[in-house]
From TrEMBL:
Pathway: Cofactor biosynthesis; thiamine diphosphate biosynthesis; thiamine phosphate from 4-amino-2-methyl-5-diphosphomethylpyrimidine and 4-methyl-5-(2-phosphoethyl)-thiazole: step 1/1. Mg(2+) binds at residues 84, 103. It holds the Pfam family TMP-TENI. GO terms for molecular function: magnesium ion binding; thiamine-phosphate diphosphorylase activity. Residues 18-204 form the Thiamine phosphate synthase/TenI domain. This is Thiamine-phosphate synthase. Signal peptide: none annotated.
Length: 225
């Protein structure tokens, strides 16, 4: 929720279970309606991630879409996340900035966004996850892909083996999320591997009923603790 201080954002991050990444271009004008539905279903964090056709959004389009998502997140008490760009996160007063291994270094991003934005990191190996669990400036990390996914073509999947290894072998107070190929049918396997939080794209963006899809996923995650 834009306007929260870092402590409150970190508390909400701790409580978060279901994280949605959504595009904007493919939604053809229904971004607000779609976001409201997903949030009503129980999504805790919404990230704008639009790489349709392999091309990121232009900054002006990205900010316009983020303003729509910011209003929806404010209506539902959810956190707004920006992907990749620290300048855009500042521009829209986002709660969260998500960085991959090839994005801005965390220390550089932290200097740009300050302490009241939480920073997340993608990880795809034990070494990267162990680093994200301790690196200064990182608030949460993601582990995956759990399965190969068309949403991130070319990204080799370490699979649930990595989720199991992180769950049993990395002691951290930082929240971490499983990602990649997760849907309702696979959720029990993700939970059994030791994850308590999940990031999804298609499981909600491609659902006929995004509110119901989010509700079922959130229910599964809540049941697991
Ligand atoms: C919550 C979340 N987790 C992972 C990613 C992937 O980040 P990255 O590896 O930088 O790839 P792109 O999404 O930027 O293509 C993410 N965006 N969000
Ligand atoms: C954006 C992204 N990052 C990943 C990672 O492993 O870091 S997997 C992924 C795509 C996840 O999409 P879906 O839920 O549609 O499979
Ligand atoms: Mg990235």
């Amino acid at each position: 929720m834009p306007g929260l201080d870092g402590d409150r954002i970190r508390k909400r991050l701790d409580d978060a279970r279901l994280y949605l990444c959504t595009d904007a271009r493919a939604r053809q004008g229904d971004l607000a309606e779609f976001a409201d539905a997903a949030l009503a279903g129980g999504v805790d964090i919404v990230q704008l991630r639009d790489k349709t056709g392999g091309k990121p959004l232009e900054a002006a389009q990205e900010i316009a879409a983020l303003e729509i998502l910011a209003e929806a997140c404010a209506r539902h008490g959810a956190l707004l996340a920006v992907n990749d760009r620290a300048d855009v996160a500042v521009a829209v007063d986002a709660d969260v900035l998500h960085l991959g291994q090839d994005d801005l270094p965390v220390a550089v991003a932290r200097r740009i966004v300050g302490d009241d934005v939480v920073i997340g990191r993608s990880t795809h190996s034990w070494e990267q996850a162990a680093a994200a669990a301790t690196e200064e400036g990182v608030d949460y990390f993601c582990v995956g892909p759990c399965w190969p996914t068309p949403t991130k073509p070319g990204r080799a999947a370490p699979g649930l083996d990595l989720v199991r290894a992180v769950s049993s072998g990395i002691e951290t107070t930082r929240p971490w999320f499983a990602i990649g190929g997760i849907d309702l049918a696979r959720l029990d396997d993700v939970l059994a591997a030791g994850a308590e939080r999940a990031v999804v794209v298609r499981a909600i963006t491609e659902a006929g009923d995004p509110a119901e899809a989010a509700r079922e996923l959130r229910h599964g995650l809540t049941r697991a603790g």
